Amino acid sequence: MSNIMDIIANETHGKSYRTFKYSFEGNDILTFNYDDHQQITWERYGETVPPTSPEFSNMKPLADKLIDSTPLFTYFLDGSRRTYKVDDISYKNQVYPVVAGQVGISCCKRENKVMQKHDFERRLVITLPKVASQEDWGKRQVFFQNLKKKINEQDTKLAASKIEFTDILPYSTKRTDEFERLESKGIAVIQDLMIEHETNMISKMVANHTINQNNYLLKDGSLEYKVDHLRNDREKRKFQSNFRYVVGVSKSFNPENCIDKSGKNNSNMIANLPLYHRTPVSMYSSPRLDGMKYAVWYLRIRDKKYTVNTFDGILKIEKILVTDEQIREGLDTEEVNYISANIVNERNPVCYGADTRWANHLYPVYVTESFAKSKYLSNAMFLNLF
Question: How far apart are the first and last CA of the chain?
Answer without folding.
Answer: 12
